[in-house]
Amino acid sequence: MLEQIQQTAQYIQSKIQSFQPTVGIILGSGLGGLVKEIEVKYTIPYSEIPHFPQSTVQGHKGQLIIGYLAEKPVLAMQGRFHYYEGYDMKQITFPVRVMKQLGIEKLIVSNAAGGMNPEFQLGELMIIKDHINFFPSNPLIGKNYDELGPRFLDMSEAYCKEYRDLAKQIAEKHTIRVKEGVYMGVSGPCFETPAEYRCFWRMGADAVGMSTVPEVIVARHGGMKVFGMSIITDLGIEGHVENVSHEEVLKVATAQEPKMSLIVKELVRIIG
Ligand code: HPA
């Protein structure tokens, strides 16, 4: 694995020459619009990158976008890998290992999620305060490479408090409504049954989705600071669970995306 990480990082570095991104960004379902804000220097399709998995989901493009966001050098993944596509946890998180190898110390992740918190409205923006790993696995299972991080990883502040506070300030300044909450990561690909939404809410989660948790675990393993945000694209509130489809998720995410993009952009301006 170490060799593959190095080979992939070397390949990307050779493509971007002396460009040094400081922030990595993983763009989720329908949230690719942030790319419009990036002054693109380099685009690298995943299909050209050695050892990179390929994205298979509609609405997820598969390429790296490297350039400037708010005048800060960033590397963005347009399209991510999901457990339900059949990849294992190490494949899903491989790009985060590569980011770290490239010298990136900060990671921003976004996703679409179903909301269980009864205070949530459709289209709500949620700053991820913490997560519950409800995937049937963990990307750190197996041999630990001490060069990459510790065997037993502290997760007491997986989502950087300083970044969360900055994001709240940015939202307030731009009069954007945001909530903070706990994200439950599940394998999918089924959306939840009403009983599952109720169960997850009672377990302490505000929202549920099929991504993010593996990448965040690996980012923390590598000592990266993390900021995460969800768009609540459907509601699984007790007594009000409605039919949900991938199309509906994409529609709501796309409508709310400009607000999230603004928060991410202004956060990068400060932390990048
Ligand atoms: N459940 C799981 N994943 C999701 C949902 C949901 O309700 N909405 C968007 N991604």
Throw out a few tags for this protein:
Rossmann fold; 25% strand; binds hypoxanthine
How would you describe what is shown here?
- By secondary structure, this protein is an alpha/beta fold.
- It has one domain (about 1-270): Rossmann fold (3-Layer(aba) Sandwich).
- The chain is built from 6 helices and 9 strands.
- A 5-stranded mixed barrel has the order 5-8-7-6-9, surrounded by 4 helices.
- The chain is globular and about 55 Å long.
- The two termini are about 30 Å apart.
- The model has no long low-confidence stretch (mean pLDDT about 95).
- The site of hypoxanthine has 14 residues, from strand 5, strand 8 and strand 9.
The helix/strand class is alpha/beta
For CATH, the homologous superfamily is named as Nucleoside phosphorylase domain
Number of domains: 1
CATH domain class name: Alpha Beta
The CATH architecture designation is 3-Layer(aba) Sandwich
Bound molecules: hypoxanthine
Strand content of the residues, in percent? 15-25%
Report the biggest beta sheet as strand number plus sense, adding barrel if it closes: 5 strands, mixed, barrel
Strands, total number: 9
Question: How would you sum up the global shape?
Answer: globular
pLDDT averaged residue by residue: 93
User: Which strands sit side by side, in order, in the main sheet?
Assistant: 5-8-7-6-9
Question: Order of helices and strands, N to C?
Answer: HEEEEHEEHEHEHEH
CATH topology name: Rossmann fold
- Proportion of helical residues: 25-40%
**How many helical stretches?**
6
How many angstroms separate the termini? 28 Å
Residue windows where pLDDT falls under 50 for at least 5 positions: none
Rg from Cα: 17 Å
